[in-house]
Design brief:
Blueprint: E1 5-10, H1 14-25, E2 30-36, H2 39-49, E3 53-57, H3 65-71, E4 77-82, E5 98-101, H4 106-119, H5 129-137, E6 143-148, E7 151-156, E8 160-166, E9 169-174, E10 178-181, H6 185-191, E11 197-201, E12 204-207, E13 211-216, E14 222-226, E15 231-233, H7 236-246
Parallel strand pairs: 1-2, 1-3, 3-4, 4-5
Antiparallel strand pairs: 6-7, 8-9, 8-12, 9-10, 11-12, 13-14, 14-15
Helix pairs in contact: 2-3
């Protein structure tokens, strides 16, 4: 009989942590090797237990999931867990085995575990899951995944016309429709290509390919008009950056 799959859970929310522990207990052939409630704790548990699999929340206090991966010496397989569907970008485009968007149930977790088994437990001399994840995270996003009813569907980043802040959410506007995603504007901006996207105001990001024209609004600020007819007033700093782009 093959040995048990040793798993560590890194999750800061107590209820989600308890759910994961419960779900794992019902999956045959899985051994819970440890539980962490923060990024620093995850580092300690993973390095001491050297698990086969890490169930890793992307957003945790002190160190987020990617920073945990950057600091790990031991390289387990990784399944991301997140309440932020915008992070589910083709498994965060990170080459991880799977991602789980909260809330998920026992069956969804069991399917992710099965994917880990299918890949097989082996020592790899080539790029590990963690290394592929870190390499990909340094590149701009090419797609987002958003909720559409009961489904999660992809949106090519090139289709985005503009993004507007809505509290801790962001409104993604394409030429055809809009989507509300559970990710702050600042965090989304960090993953967009700066050659194509400009934050023109604290609440607005625009795709430069969707800009129809610029015109002065006053001595310092520009009015940015998009091809869909939307006009947005750029901040003074953003207006200067836009002017630099066209010089």
């Amino acid at each position: 009989m093959s040995r048990a799959l040793r798993c560590v859970i890194a999750e800061d929310e107590a209820e989600s942590r308890a759910n994961l522990v419960s779900y794992l207990s019902s999956v045959p052939g899985v051994e819970l090797a440890g539980v962490a409630a923060s990024g620093p704790e995850a580092l300690v548990v993973v390095e001491s237990e050297r698990p086969d699999l890490l169930l890793l929340d992307i957003r945790m206090p002190e160190l987020d999931g990617l920073e945990v991966l950057r600091r790990l010496v031991h390289r387990p397989e990784v399944v991301f867990t997140t309440a932020y569907e915008a992070y589910a970008v083709a498994a965060f485009e990170l080459g991880v085995v799977d991602y789980l968007v909260k809330p998920f149930g026992r069956d969804r977790l069991a399917a992710a575990i099965e994917r880990v088994r299918t890949r097989g437990l082996r020592v790899r001399e080539d790029a590990s899951t963690v290394e592929r994840a870190l390499d990909a995270s340094a590149r701009p996003l090419t797609r987002l995944f958003v909720r559409k009813g009961t489904r999660i569907v992809p949106i090519a980043v090139g289709e985005i016309v503009r993004v507007q802040a809505s509290g801790e959410y962001s409104e993604i506007h394409t030429a055809r429709e809009s989507h509300l995603v559970n990710i702050p504007l600042k965090e989304l901006l960090a993953r967009l290509d700066p050659a194509s996207f400009e934050q023109i105001h604290r609440s607005h990001i625009v795709n430069l390919d969707a800009v129809d024209h610029l015109r002065p609004a006053d001595d310092r600020r520009l009015l940015v008009t998009l091809r869909d007819g939307t006009s947005l007033l750029a901040s003074r700093a953003a207006s200067e950056r836009m002017r630099q782009r066209v010089r």
